[in-house]
Amino acid sequence: MIEALNDILTWLLIAMAIALTIAALGLALMWRSIKRLRVPREAGYFATMHYVPLGLVILLDLLDFGLDIFAAPVSWLLLDRLGLRGLRNKAAIEALIPFTQPIPTFTLSWFAARYLGVGDDMVPRVIEGEAREARPQLPPH
Questions:
Q1: Cα of 95 vs its chain's centroid, Å
Q2: Euclidean distance between CA atoms 109 and 111, whole angstroms
Q3: Which burial class, exposed, middle or buried, applies to 26 when counting CB atoms under 10 A from its CB (0-12, 13-18, 19+)?
Q4: CB–CB of 104/58 below 8 Å?
Q5: Residue 20 contacts residue 66 (beta carbons within 8 Å)
Q6: Average pLDDT taken over every residue of the chain
Q7: Predicted confidence band at 122 (pLDDT cuts at 50, 70, 90)?
Q8: Per-residue pLDDT for 30 more than 90?
């Protein structure tokens, strides 16, 4: 039983080391092209997803997997330096939630933003239960 657990932990650490290596190399290679993106400062999470390439979000997911909980400060600083402020908070929060590291949340969000039409304006509507549309519009004074 202990041998099996040791084997699982060894392979998990190897997978995390490989993911971290790929993420570090990929981010180093993409740094200049990502810095050239012109993402508006006021762009939210899903709006920013429309500007970034798929490779970046995959590398961010690999970084999150490779560093586990320690990815929060690294991804915060990295995304701030790249000018992708719309992704900072979500990256830090997702990195701090236990057991979410194997889930490629950035990649899934990228596909949701690009192909399912999920946008930053949808989140308040879902939370409020579409209550905004039900309110009567008041005429201007």
A1: 9
A2: 5
A3: middle
A4: yes
A5: yes
A6: 84
A7: low
A8: yes
